[in-house]
Amino acid sequence: MSLFGAMDASTSALQAQRLRLNVTAENIANAESVGYRRKDVVLRQATGGGGFADALQAAKGVEVAAVVADQDPQRRVLDPTHPDADAQGYVTLPNVDSVTEMTELISASRSYEANVTAMQTAKTLFSRTLELLR
Amino acid sequence: MQLFDLTQRSLHAALHGAAVRQNALAANIANVDTPGYRRVDVDFQDALRRTLAGDARAVEALEVTPVPDMRAVAVRQDGNTVDIDREATEQATNGLTYQALVSVINAREAIIKSAIGVA
């Protein structure tokens, strides 16, 4: 086990948080798209290789379990002139709430920064170890 | 007579322990948003102390693994026990411990080198 394990864990988190940022950006981009449902990223602890040693080895990164559609009800707005209006004159607009997306955006970006810091620490330690060879 | 005394070998074991702990703390920070994640930690100081109190020769074979921290309380509704402020502090502390260990190992090895006349 080396310090590269720490950097691998941080890398997996950077990827996961970046995906969260991308999905949140997609939600905001589609805030007015008819029929769209906001998406959510579900994270879980990385399982590693799946062997017995991997199961014992508790320190692993994170992985994306799924990107799921939020099942909250969509907004129904009365707009009979809209081309996508149904028989009753209602248009189905997304369940995207800008406040939720903004907090999600800040949360993902802060987590990203935390992992960058963790990786920098691991990098510093690794270069310190190289001093042992001098 | 050995080239490396018990202190030097203990320092190597501690350095390894600090590296394992750094990995555990990185995994915790990586899982800060994972629902239900339990933080893991390594108590290598305690493992080292117990080894030195018993058969000190076993210090080279000392192996530490991260274990789930059962004392940590959930900080979120979903049961995640990672407190990001705590992890950041622990990581900074552990990093300084690691750097201190490297410095001490370097200094002691410099003494050995000068004693055997290679430096």
Rg on CA atoms of chain A, Å: 21 Å
**Beta fraction of the residues of chain B?**
under 5%
Structural class of chain A: alpha+beta
Which strand order do you get reading across the main beta sheet of chain B? 1-2
Order of H and E elements of chain A: HEHEEEH
Quaternary state reads heterodimer
Rounded to the nearest angstrom, the distance between the terminal CA atoms of chain B is 21 Å
Largest interface: A-B, 40 and 34 residues
List SSEs of chain B in N-to-C order.
Answer: HEHEH
Helix/strand-derived category of chain B reads: mainly alpha
- How many extended strands of chain B? 2
> What's the rounded overall pLDDT mean of chain B?
90
Mind explaining what this structure looks like?
The complex is a heterodimer of chains A (134) and B (119). With 134 residues, chain A is α+β, with helices and mostly antiparallel strands. Chain A has helices at residues 4-29, 52-56, 98-130, and strands at 39-45, 62-69, 75-78, 90-93. Chain A is elongated and about 80 Å long. Helix content of chain A is 48%, strand content 17%. In chain A, helix 1 (4-29) packs antiparallel against helix 3 (98-130). In chain B, 57% of the residues lie in helices and 3% in strands. Chain B has a two-stranded antiparallel ribbon. In chain B, helix 1 (6-30) packs antiparallel against helix 3. The longest helix of chain B has 33 residues, at 84-116. Classes of the chains: A alpha+beta (134), B mainly alpha (119). At the A-B interface, helix 1, strand 1 and helix 3 of A face helix 1, strand 2 and helix 3 of B.
